[in-house]
Amino acid sequence: MYGTTMLLKEEAVATLKQFDIGEKFSYLPVLPKASVLIPLFVRGGQLHTLLTLRSQELRTGAGEVCFPGGKRDPSDQDDVHTALREAHEEIGLPPDQVEVVCTLFPVFSKKGLLVSPVVGFIEETFIPALNPSEVSAVFAVPLDFFTREKDHYATHGVAGVTGPLHSFYFRDPASGNQYHIWGLTAMLATLVGALALKKKPEFNVGFDILDPFTFFKKILHKRLSKL
């Protein structure tokens, strides 16, 4: 099992590193920024990710499913630092226990923040320590779930959204709770699932899985032209 776990992880790391943006977007103007951490790990011979349910106490996005993350602080060194700091604050994940793999292309959130998705591997044995003022639950989802049609729904023609608005309903076998995963979080989960697993989703994702960079760059520039 250990050999299979290492092989799955090594293959995913090698694939995802090809999509690291490096300095490709260093020319962007100074904008309000945020980062999310997309934590990956291998369990039962499958790649999984961790998602959080935002606390009902929050002023924005209360009760929504998200990856750990938040706004950039002036003291943050870069996008990776923001993602790791927020994950530490929200779910108690020590930064030194994250093997950062890549930073994917930035995307705009519905609040107008430029969000950088940071992908990293964590240990399967990690036990979250929730900050109740920010997070009310943490749950694991197999990445393959985000490539299947079975629990996927799409809404078209949503204002401010290019392509379909993706939505999933996931029942957590550990707790029995059902979670609604939608919007930017669903899109990022689908993207990382397709890239890491080298698997084309069973539904129309709205962009070319073989060359997602071109699509997201076009969307980014379209939004920037309206600022």
UniProtKB/TrEMBL annotation:
It comes from the Eukaryota. Its cofactor is Mn(2+); Mg(2+). Gene3D superfamilies: Nucleoside Triphosphate Pyrophosphohydrolase. It comes from Cyprinodon variegatus (Sheepshead minnow). One of its GO terms (cellular component) is peroxisomal matrix. This is Peroxisomal coenzyme A diphosphatase NUDT7. Fatty acyl-coenzyme A (CoA) diphosphatase that hydrolyzes fatty acyl-CoA to yield acyl-4'-phosphopantetheine and adenosine 3',5'-bisphosphate. Cleaves CoA, CoA esters and oxidized CoA with similar efficiencies. Preferentially hydrolyzes medium-chain acyl-CoAs and bile acid-CoAs. Has no activity toward NDP-sugars, CDP-alcohols, (deoxy)nucleoside 5'-triphosphates, nucleoside 5'-di or monophosphates, diadenosine polyphosphates, NAD, NADH, NADP, NADPH or thymidine-5'-monophospho-p-nitrophenyl ester. It catalyses: octanoyl-CoA + H2O = S-octanoyl-4'-phosphopantetheine + adenosine 3',5'-bisphosphate + 2 H(+); 3alpha,7alpha,12alpha-trihydroxy-5beta-cholestan-26-oyl-CoA + H2O = 3alpha,7alpha,12alpha-trihydroxy-5beta-cholestan-26-oyl-4'-phosphopantetheine + adenosine 3',5'-bisphosphate + 2 H(+); a 5'-end CoA-ribonucleoside in mRNA + H2O = a 5'-end phospho-adenosine-phospho-ribonucleoside in mRNA + (R)-4'-phosphopantetheine + 2 H(+); malonyl-CoA + H2O = malonyl-4'-phosphopantetheine + adenosine 3',5'-bisphosphate + 2 H(+). The lineage of its organism: Eukaryota, Metazoa, Chordata, Craniata, Vertebrata. Its EC number is 3.6.1.77. Keywords: Hydrolase, Magnesium, Manganese, Metal-binding, Peroxisome, RNA-binding. One of its GO terms (molecular function) is magnesium ion binding. InterPro entries: CoAse (IPR045121), NUDIX_hydrolase-like_dom_sf (IPR015797), NUDIX_hydrolase_dom (IPR000086), NUDIX_hydrolase_NudL_CS (IPR000059). It is found in: Peroxisome. Residues 31-164 form the Nudix hydrolase domain.
